[in-house]
Amino acid sequence: MKEFELINRYFKGRGITRRDVNLGIGDDCALVSVPQNCQLAVTTDTLVAGVHFFDDISPRALGHRALAVNLSDLAAMGAEPTWVSVALTLPSIDPQWIEEFTEGMHEIAEYFNVQIIGGDTTQGPLTITICAKGTVPEGKALRRSGAKVGDWIYVTGPLGDAGLAIESRKQGFKIEPEHLKYVNKRFDYPTPRVAAGQVLRGLASSAIDVSDGLIADLGHILDMSQVSAVINVESIPTSDAMKSSLDFDQQLPFILSYGDDYELLFTVPDSNKGMLDLKLRQYGVDAVCIGQVKSGDGQIELLYNGEEFNFEQHGFEHFAKEQV
User: Fold this and answer.
1) Which of 46, 79, 147, 211 would bridge 206 by S-S if both were Cys, CB 3.0 to 4.6 A apart?
2) What is the topology classification, in CATH, of domain 152-308?
3) DSSP helix/strand/coil, 24
4) Can you name the CATH fold of 3-137?
5) pTM, whole model, 2 decimals?
C-alpha cells in the first residue's frame, strides 16, 4: 500500500461530513466556511512514541488519544471543535494497525461532530501531529490572562489518574485490577471537556486544560494574569482508584505535578459561582473549588487543613525529562 491508497482507504470519505466543509481531503488545501461573528481557534499537538505514549498502547487508543488532547485545547478556550488535519508518520504500513488507529480517531471525531479535512502521511519514526480547529463567538474565547484577585479556582474532575497509570507501567505499582483498568483508561482514552468549556464562556475569567500538571498549568494562568493563588490540597478531587492505591503523601506528586488528565482548570468570579454550578451539572460535570486567586506575581501557596507545606516537584516540560 502506498501513500495515496492509504489516504483514500482510511481517511477520504470516512467519518462525518459537515456542511461547512466546502472541500475536504483530496486537494492541495481544504476549504471551510467560518460562521459570521465567530473567531477561528487553532491548536496543534504532536505525539511521539516513547515520549507521549507507550509502545504497547493499542492503535485504537492511540487514535482516540491523539485527537482528544487537541480537542482538550479547544475546550480550554471555550471553542466548538469543527475540523482537524492529521499528519501521520509511520515506520511502515501495517493495514491492521492503521485500520484500528483510524477507527479510534473516527469514533471520537464523530462523537464531537468533527471532520477530518486533510493532512499528510510520510515514513519515519511513529509520530502523530494534529492541527485542530474550532469556532468561538467573537470576543468570547476563554484565555489564561483573565484571572482576578478574589476569583475562585476550580477543576472539572479528579487529578492524578493518568500519572498513576504511567508509573504503574514504569515501576510496577501494585494496583487492584479494577483500579488499574480505570486509570489506564483515563490515560489511554482521555475525555476532553468540550461541553464544559463552552458552558464556561461568560462565566469563567480564565481557563486551561491540565496537560502538564496542576502546579505547572495553574502557573501559566497566574503568570499571564499577573496574580498569585492559594490552593487547598485536601480539596483537590481524586478518584477512588487513587485513594485506594496510595497513601495521601504518595498521592501528592500525582495530583500536583503529573499531567495528562485533561480536566479543565479555571477561575470564576464570586458573582458567577451559583450559575456555574447550575449550568455544569446539566452536563454531568461536578466542578470542585480548590482555592482562590490572590494578589502577587505568580506564587502558589499550598495549604493542607489550613497549614502551609512545601512541595518541590513541578509539571512536565519538554527537554527536561521523558514523559513515559
Assistant:
1) 147
2) Phosphoribosyl-aminoimidazole Synthetase; Chain A, domain 2 (3.90.650)
3) coil
4) 60s Ribosomal Protein L30; Chain: A; (3.30.1330)
5) 0.91
